[in-house]
From TrEMBL:
Domain of life: Eukaryota
Protein name: Channel protein, hemolysin III family
TM stretches of this protein: 62-84, 104-124, 136-152, 164-184, 190-207, 219-239
Protein location: Membrane
Membrane topology value: Multi-pass membrane protein
Pfam family name, one: HlyIII
Source organism per UniProt: Ancylostoma caninum
A single cellular component GO annotation: membrane
Amino acid sequence: MSGSCGIVNPSLYKNKRAGKGEAYEPTTYEHWANTISHGIGIVPSIIVFQHMVSVAHRDLQFYLMIIYGIFTTLLFSSSTCYHACELKYRQKREQPQLRYYLHICDRAAIYLFIAASYTPWLTLRHCGYPGLNLKWMIWVFAVLGIIYQYNFHEKQVLSFLYKTLETVIYVLVAGCPSVAIFTMNDRTGLEWMIVGGLVYITGVIFFKMDGIIPFAHAIWHIHVLIGASCHTYAVYSTLLGPDPNNPVPDISRIDL
């Protein structure tokens, strides 16, 4: 099997690592794995989304679960659509514009998912001054990340720098709001947030290992599935329903 650039594939499961300024060319098996590994998350995310909305006891919980559920489902859906498109068209070099913009949507969904993951905690938990600001700043960071992605996605000049900076931005956007944890009066359930965060960080290692480890990107996808599951369980078990120790006021009486 050979890649589209004429590079001989050493195996069915991994192609040669891309050079600087080049995009990695997954094997057909890797394309399938990339598509399936996030495709299996779509239906469960919709089911959990519906259930979390249905068990919300307050208006604010209800609206926050809509935000959380929409962007979690969007994460898996956009990723699956992009990789399915790559599977169908990449080897034939067809639909380059569609593939390009779906890739941007895939990356943009990550920023929105990160913001949506933090929002219930920063809103429903009593935070100190940094946490109150971060509730809004995390969405500003997400928008700035998307703007960066749109302007510098797959740029050929200094592409290694852009790709490295892209990963750094993801880690910063995901990590900086965690400082609000130390300002929360009630930290119940945060252990699952920490576990999920560690799973994501471990997955980033594989995110950068295309061409070194077979199915590296699919392994990254599995880490995202596990991390999202940990965070969803934390939200469901801790932030939903009535809590006499940490009552959530109705949305009509809360200062957003």
